[in-house]
Specification:
Structural class: alpha/beta
Shape: globular
CATH class: Alpha Beta
Bound molecules: nicotinamide-adenine-dinucleotide
Number of helices: 8
Number of domains: 1
Largest sheet: 7 strands, parallel
Oligomer: single chain
Strand order of the largest sheet: 3-2-1-4-5-6-7
CATH superfamily: NAD(P)-binding Rossmann-like Domain
Length: 255
């Protein structure tokens, strides 16, 4: 098993992608601190796995909570090897409809500052433990391109890509790798918001293979990056977007 004896923190663990990361990492032998906003939900998730998973409520927008989350992983499992900063939010909204008081800060607070908090708290702990580690961040293909209704989301994910590079450079002397994964469109509650907008079939047709990526496929990429097999991959964002950035709308009608 690729992740045997590794202790891993996964944020956004109750969500579509996070839930599959927990499942895959457990199957690969890891012990996992599963983290999300709601204590009852993370506990219910952990209960389905037994002793290999502990559920802890943490709001990643609060540094003190993120620091406590990292301490909890070490207290409970004895060490830390990997963190997956995966929690993220986004609500489709046109830029000119933004509430300038809230809209920017709410999204960047989770997607950007939340990842920053995870990098900082886990980076400090891994340094203090004096062992190699991996910090993995969930970015998005939208960090590399413009799209309508997702202004703050794209800005925050571009920041994740840059934080990944800068952190990798500064943490390299401690033998800590920092990488990100940029999914395209993954069938989770986050993406299903487009269903309510009547855009589900439209965005499905924008996919090169007319289908969405499954959360388990993204979890498989994270499992590889968390493993020692990925030792030469550092400071980069791995595209897991099924070709989306290199593809333009289909011109021809569907057969
Ligand atoms: N679904 C997609 O198409 C897609 C594409 C690219 C990137 N992503 C990214 O993947 C990650 C996971 O998204 P998902 O699609 O599984 O969405 P999801 O909504 O199913 O899961 C997100 C989880 O994050 C949690 N969360 C939100 N705010 C939090 C906070 N402040 N502290 C802790 N947890 C918090 C939520 O409770 C939820 O369980 C996100 O970073 C998202 O931006 C998703």
């Amino acid at each position: 098993m690729k992740l045997e004896n590794k202790v891993v923190i996964v944020t956004g663990a109750v969500g579509g992608i996070g839930g599959e990361i927990v499942k895959r990492f457990v199957a690969e032998g890891a012990r996992v601190l599963a983290v999300d906003l709601d204590q009852a939900k993370v506990e219910a998730l952990a209960d389905t796995y037994g002793e290999q998973v502990l559920g802890v409520a943490t709001d990643v927008t609060e540094y003190a909570q993120v620091e406590a989350m990292v301490e909890k992983a070490v207290d409970h499992f004895g060490t830390l090897d990997v963190i997956v900063n995966n929690a993220g939010i986004g609500t489709p909204k046109m830029l000119l409809d933004h509430d300038p008081v809230d809209d920017f800060d709410i999204v960047t607070g989770v997607n950007q500052k939340g990842v920053y908090h995870g990098i900082l708290a886990a980076g400090r702990k891994l340094r203090d433990l004096g062992k190699p580690g991996a910090i993995l961040n969930t970015s998005s293909v939208y960090g590399q391109m413009a799209s309508e209704m997702t202004f703050t989301y794209n800005v925050s994910k571009a920041a994740v890509d840059m934080m990944t590079k800068c952190a990798a450079l500064e943490l390299a002397p401690h033998n800590i790798r920092v990488c990100a994964v940029a999914p395209g469109r993954v069938d989770t509650p986050l993406l299903r918001q487009y269903e309510a907008l009547g855009l589900w079939d439209h965005i499905r047709r924008e996919q090169m293979r007319s289908t969405f990526t499954q959360p388990a496929e993204i979890a498989a990429v994270f499992a590889f990056l968390a493993s020692d097999d990925a030792n030469c991959i550092n400071g980069t964002t791995v595209c897991a977007e099924d070709g989306f950035v290199n593809f333009k709308y289909p011109l021809l009608p569907e057969e």
